[in-house]
């Protein structure tokens, strides 16, 4: 094998040197690295996208060989959509493996500020490479799955911590994501199969991490909605249709505001906490709470209160101040985007 590497053209030899130094690829055999090095080197930039957020998966991942890339995510705000830079990655690194293994659309955009170079690996080339040494190939996919699992569990801890803050609860029952993460950890420990089996495990873990990240994104969105304060209450002004999805929630909010103004200043009432308490109280019936659903409802209900308060029997003031984003939230959002 070493002799084969020495006979390579200098360009391919340099690529092999880069690949052999990547921690993610260190389980691959020399002949597998040599196979990857035969791929044409693709160059991007400056200011060119390697991956567009939301684009359909075309069955490729990128091994970045040189340069620096930036991960950005579309963020929907009340003022419109903006794009936020999540993190920077320097070569050598793997990009887009999430969509490669799951078949899902791209979860974030990847662009090059300056020139970068990398290898585009499609499914055919990947399969040819792993089949050259199936034991090493299975080991590589197992390691990739383990790295993804570690990131998923870190993000899951952040997710539960944020749930406690948003819903003001000391304890959050273990729910779907926790069970899925533990099942995936068990798969990592017990799977003894071949390449195909490990590809299936990798896809399952990456699918789970994508779902956790999306749930965290919903929490992040709610945490960064503008704060609002109620300024007056008129129960006779409630005109929301009884058939409306949030009729009960908004009626309860109006009652809370009406009762509160008899004892404290309306401006002292935290509207986010109040609305979260109302929504979750309507779901507790001895069953495990679907917090992902709760957060989705909370985002919708809060946006409704901001935009249609005149129909809900109260007036509000939306605080127009610059919000400082929680650093922990920001770190969490950068953990899993591919």
TrEMBL record:
- Residue stretches in coiled coil: none
Q: Which residues cross the membrane?
A: none
- Pfam families (alphabetical): cNMP_binding
- Which CDD domains does the entry mention? CAP_ED
All residue ranges annotated as the Cyclic nucleotide-binding domain in the record: 60-130
Q: Which SUPFAM superfamilies match?
A: cAMP-binding domain-like (SSF51206)
Q: Which InterPro entries match?
A: cNMP-bd_dom (IPR000595), cNMP-bd_dom_sf (IPR018490), RmlC-like_jellyroll (IPR014710)
Q: What is this protein called?
A: Cyclic nucleotide-binding domain-containing protein
The organism's taxonomic lineage, starting at the top? unclassified sequences, metagenomes, ecological metagenomes
